[in-house]
UniProtKB/TrEMBL annotation:
Pfam families: ACPS
Protein known as: Possible 4'-phosphopantetheinyl transferase family protein
Alphabetically ordered keywords of this record: Transferase
Entry superkingdom: Bacteria
Span of the signal peptide: none
Domain 4'-phosphopantetheinyl transferase, residue spans: 86-156
Gene Ontology molecular function terms on file: holo-[acyl-carrier-protein] synthase activity; magnesium ion binding
UniProt-listed InterPro entries: 4-PPantetheinyl_Trfase_dom, 4-PPantetheinyl_Trfase_dom_sf
Regions annotated as coiled coil: none
Natural source organism: Prochlorococcus marinus (strain NATL2A)
Record carries keyword Cell wall biogenesis/degradation: no
Amino acid sequence: MPSKLLPISSEEKKWVQKLAPSRGLIYHFSRGCLRHVMSNITGLGPLDIPLKADPGEPPLLAEGWGNISMSHCSDALLIGWSSGKIGVDIERKDREIQAYKLSKRFFTQYENYEIENLSPCQAKELVLKRWVIKEAAVKWQRGKIANNINQWIWKNKSSFAHHKKLGHKVKVYEQNYDQWTYAIALDEDSITCKPIICVD
């Protein structure tokens, strides 16, 4: 986390005042970083980036600016920017989760069958991977996690995930980097075979 928070818009500052202190800090941090990164890429000032990023809603750019998605965990922020729709998610690989319980609650019978004969460590790794892929897909969809996480299906090692109720299909890219695992969901017909990842 930077030593000081980066600039955000006056509208975003009003949101910070309305949020609980801890959530307001994360909101300010993530929106400030998003504006800073896009400023470095475009040459515009951070406050000139045409961004609307209300709390709890997918961030939006002005028409012609493409699509963005972001995700954060305890010590990392992942920002995705694409000409087509995009969803991203990131988690620490060492995050404590109850893999079997989480899988039974949110995943399909087939997905649960995949982890039955795995060791606890292997099961945790696969469940965490499946979770970030599904959450990235939900963000691509611009849906709500609670209503859609169990609707997205991803078979281990597949390059695609699909929504069993709505029929959506997305191309997914999942990778580990250092102590994190992350996923990116793109349009099914995206010609991107491997997204460009920049680390700062």
